[in-house]
Amino acid sequence: MDRVRRLASQRAVVVFSLSSCCMCHTVKRLFCELGVNPAVHELDEDPRGKDMERALAKMLGRSPPVPAVFIGGNLVGPTDEVMALHLGGKLVPLLRNAGALWL
């Protein structure tokens, strides 16, 4: 869990993902469309990915735990949480406050 927290705090937006996950792709695409360049950690391509996946499952209380999105070092959650923030007009201000967006 320490590794997940450390990685999550290294950039304004961090996405833990699986390369074959369509919902992960959706979240990553949303951030790109908004002009955000998130740090993406593909768990299936990391030698310690399974350990991180278990830690994320504990943090989120669900399995599979991806995508897991952190903004400003804080856990936002999976796709439904990110989309709810976006549709409610709260995602962009959150990204600005974290320094992920300049305008």
UniProtKB/TrEMBL annotation:
Entry keywords, A to Z: Cytoplasm, Electron transport, Redox-active center, Transport
UniProt xrefs under PANTHER family: GLUTAREDOXIN (PTHR10168)
Pfam families assigned to the protein according to its UniProt record, in alphabetical order: Glutaredoxin (PF00462)
PROSITE patterns, sorted: GLUTAREDOXIN_2 (PS51354)
NCBIfam families recorded: GlrX-like_plant
Name this polypeptide is given: Glutaredoxin
GO cellular component: cytoplasm
Organism: Musa troglodytarum
Main location per the UniProt record: cytoplasm
Family: Belongs to the glutaredoxin family. CC-type subfamily.
Protein task: Has a glutathione-disulfide oxidoreductase activity in the presence of NADPH and glutathione reductase. Reduces low molecular weight disulfides and proteins.
UniProt xrefs under InterPro entries: GlrX-like_pln_2, Glutaredoxin, Thioredoxin-like_sf
CDD domains: GRX_GRXh_1_2_like
Keyword Transit peptide: no
Cellular location(s): Cytoplasm
Span of domain Glutaredoxin: 13-76
